[in-house]
Each structure stands twice: as structure tokens, then as C-alpha cells.
Amino acid sequence: MDALMSRLDALVLKPEFAPFLSLLKGARNGVVYGSKVRFPHALVMIFLFRSGTFREKVKLVLKATRHHARNLATFAMIYKASMIVLRNISPAGSGKEGRYDSFFAGLLGGYAVFGRQRGSISQQIVIYVFARVMLSLAKLSVQPDMHPLSSLITPEARAQITQNAWPAFASLSWAFVMYLFRWYPDTLASSLRSSMVYIYADSDHWDSFRTLFIHNK
Fold first, then answer.
1. pLDDT one digit per residue (tens) for the chain, 217 residues
2. For residue 73, what are the domain limits?
3. How large is the greatest C-alpha to C-alpha distance in the chain, in angstroms?
4. Number of domains in the chain
5. Which of residues 140, 172, 200 is at a domain's end?
6. Residues 123 and 204 in one domain
7. Which InterPro entries does UniProt cross-reference here (predicted)?
């Protein structure tokens, strides 16, 4: 067994196999990470807020976990394979990564895995990523030499923007979501809408001490 493991170690450490083995490990890590992240979230959300038998809820948890893990694994393989191809078809012929290779590889993976399906799990992932992208772009927008208007932002103004950006972003996010929930609830995602109904709408109704403090309805 030791001799076999030594041969396998030597095989996987060969440089010529590295690009292809990185695809396999990317898929492996996508499955593991997707399962670790999605399973506890789905377990809590489904058992707290979904109706149905215990067996039906377990099936929903496993389905959500499998879907998330498969999406991340598939995206990882498409992205890494695209990066390999783009490096090898580089006009410079250097085999090095281009400045925008990651953008185009992400574009292809995003379309293939998340853009062609509109399920709630895919929407949650994309919305999560979108929010993080917007925060990153906001930080970059005030950095020196990032765009033609960067020279107009003084160090003092940059410090003020950085200090107040998060409070403004958080306040406006909650302002808009509460407005939408109040007047256009059907436009919100069902999971968000149901949680807001539970907290903000159901709390306006009770008919006894029990439904006031002990049980919602």
C-alpha cells in the first residue's frame, strides 16, 4: 500500500498533469464547500419554514445541498478549463494568463451554470455574489488612479466616503426592502418575503396571550 501511495504521489506531482488535476480538485472542492455551506442553511430554513412530513423535509434538504454542490463544482471546472484554454490561445503565445482571462472564464461559467436556470438556489448564489461585487467596485471607485475621475477625489474626501459608505449602503438597502415589502411584496424573493411576513406582518395579529408570546398563530 505504501508503494502504491508513493507512486500516486509522484504521478500527481508531475507538472504536465497539473492543469488537468486542478480541474478535478476544483470540482472536489466545489462539492465539499457547497455541501458544507448549503446543508446547515437548508436544514434550518426548511425545517423551520417549510411544511410537510419529516421525510419530505429531509429530501428537500438533500436536494438543495446536492444542487448547490453540483453548481459550484461545475462552475469550478468550466472556469478552470476556460482559463487553461485562454492561456494556450493567447495571441502573445506566451502561455501566460491575460488581464481579462478570468473575466471571460467567469462569464462563460456564470452563463452555463447559473444564467440558464432560475431556481431559488441559483438566484440566492448570484444575488450573494452580486452584492459582494458591488461592495468591491464601490471600494475600487474611490481608490487612486482607478478611473479618469480619480484625480478629483481628494484624500480627505476619500476618507469621508470610505467612512460613510457602509452606513449609507446598509440604510438604503433596508429602506428599499421595507418599502418594497410594504407596497410590492410579490417582487421580493419568496424566502425573504416569508421571513418578513413572519416578523413584521404576523406580529400585528394575535387573539390571546398564547398567540401573542408563545405561538405565532
1. 778 888 888 888 888 888 889 999 999 999 999 999 999 989 998 998 888 999 999 999 999 899 999 999 999 999 999 999 998 887 766 678 888 999 999 999 999 999 988 787 788 889 989 999 998 998 898 888 888 888 888 889 889 988 998 999 999 999 999 999 999 999 998 878 988 999 999 999 998 988 888 888 7
2. 1-140
3. 76
4. 2
5. 140
6. no
7. Pmp4
